[in-house]
Design a protein that fits this description.
single chain; about 425 residues; alpha/beta; nine-stranded mixed beta sheet; five-stranded mixed beta sheet; 10 helices; metal-binding
Length: about 425
């Protein structure tokens, strides 16, 4: 598999995945093309050893499985999340001021706000409609051209802006959308876009979940094209790498890829890592292919391992003092093992040792990240999944800059490094 071909697939995936629903839809397309069978949670399952299957929940979370050919004894699990911080539309989004139709927004997750100013913004998400025959349907919408912008205030009107000021998301972040428009125009435009994209006409919009997104396409940046720059690298990059590894695994072992929604807002939902989605799927699989009952399920989980993949903070050349001197991961330096004594990451010495051995086997360099002792630490789905399932877990990730910005940056070589490590993990005969 060439590095260039993988990076081109990555850029395409990022472009086609402006929301968690689009990301899951795009992942499902690749799984379908690779021969995976889609399961329905509301129906009875009939599973066979060696099968490749997947299931979605809420259209925004997905679990895909390569079932082992012989004996469900241990699973090699890779976890990621499909959501990213950003700006979501409020239910009654249309508002007017100064002769402009604007869009009322709420913040999703820990958004880095300043980079959203003066960007070309599109609109994407899902819309639920009632057709003239009374049928209800949810469809994806992706307006991938510039339809909105959040203009900065000129420095002449705020001379102290470069000395730092707080941004009020309620009053200073609503994007301008249509000059001279009124509130009814938003509904009209949504219906026009639904007709253009899905051929839907005469329908009534019942509700929507829509988000603004940067329409600047993902790109390889740098003299040697050594950087990947895009929106939503946190954490679509891990979703992509996990999917690549699953598809490249040799099928000899039981492999699971889970990509949950709602990590950026705490994971407490039916399709989030704190919810029952992954456990529900694994219990149904174990009931058919493993040792039945609670004891059999516990034995399966304790024999399995989970690698939670979520990007890590790379050493920033302009802010080197923000890192512990001995734990500043470099872009293109390999995947990062994330450690926190207070369990903000799930890594322990046993799971870390396993990953280091996997990387040795795959010929992949490995790095370590720990926050400065005088700074707080973020978290991932790793500790949550470990708590919910009890599975031994570690946290790793590709190093990146500008986490939670509208455009983030990672190393192009790290995409290949982490993919190779996860393929080696997926194919590994022994986990202990």
């Amino acid at each position: 598999m060439s590095r260039e071909a993988r990076l081109e697939r990555l850029l395409d995936f990022l472009h086609r995945s402006p929301t968690p629903w689009h990301a899951v839809s795009t992942m499902a397309e690749r799984l379908d093309a690779a021969g995976f069978r889609r399961l329905d949670e509301s129906q009875a399952w009939q599973l066979a050893p060696g099968e490749r299957v997947y299931v979605t929940r809420n259209g925004s979370s997905i679990v895909a499985l390569q079932l082992p050919h012989e004996g469900l004894e241990a699973l090699r699990m890779v976890g990621a999340h499909t959501d990213s911080p950003g700006l979501r539309l409020k239910p009654h989004a249309a508002q007017t001021a100064g002769g402009w139709l604007q869009l009322g927004i709420e913040l999703y997750g820990g958004v880095l706000l300043a980079p959203w100013y003066d960007r070309d913004l599109g609109l994407a998400g899902r819309v639920h409609v009632r057709h003239p025959d009374g049928r209800l349907e949810g469809v994806l919408l992706h307006v991938d051209w510039p339809i909105a912008i959040i203009p900065s205030l000129a420095i002449h009107l705020d001379r102290e802006v470069n000395n730092g000021r707080a941004i009020n998301a309620q009053t200073q972040m609503p994007p301008v959308f249509l000059q001279g428009g009124d509130k009814a125009d938003l509904q009209r435009l949504l219906l026009e876009w639904l007709e253009a994209q899905h051929g839907i006409s005469g329908a009534e919009i019942l509700d929507f979940e829509l988000a603004l997104h940067d329409v600047q396409p993902p790109a390889l940046v740098g003299v040697e094209r050594e950087l990947v720059a895009s929106a939503r690298l946190d954490n679509l990059l891990s979703c992509f790498i996990g999917l690549e590894a699953l598809l490249e695994s040799d099928g000899s072992q039981g492999v699971v890829l889970v990509a949950n929604d709602h990590e950026e807002v705490g994971s407490a939902s039916a399709c989030g890592a704190q919810g029952p989605f992954l456990g529900d799927v694994l219990r149904r699989v174990n009931a058919q292919l493993g040792e039945p009952g609670d004891e059999g399920f516990i034995r399966l989980i304790q024999a399995s391992r989970m690698i939670s993949c979520d990007n890590a903070h790379a050493l920033h050349p302009n802010f080197t003092d923000k890192h512990d001197a001995a734990h500043g991961p470099a872009l293109n330096g390999g995947p990062v093992i994330k450690v926190n004594a207070n369990q903000r990451y799930a890594t322990n010495s046993a799971t870390s040792a396993l990953f280091r051995d996997v990387c040795r086997e795959a010929g992949v360099p490995v790095q370590t990240f720990v926050t400065r002792a005088d700074m707080g630490c973020g978290s991932t789905i790793g500790p949550i999944t470990a708590t919910e399932l009890g599975v031994p877990t570690l946290d790793v990730g590709v190093p990146q800059w500008a986490m939670h910005s509208i455009r983030e940056t990672a190393g192009a070589s790290d995409v290949e490094y982490l993919t190779r490590a996860l393929v080696a993990f997926a194919n590994r005969p022994r986990l202990a």
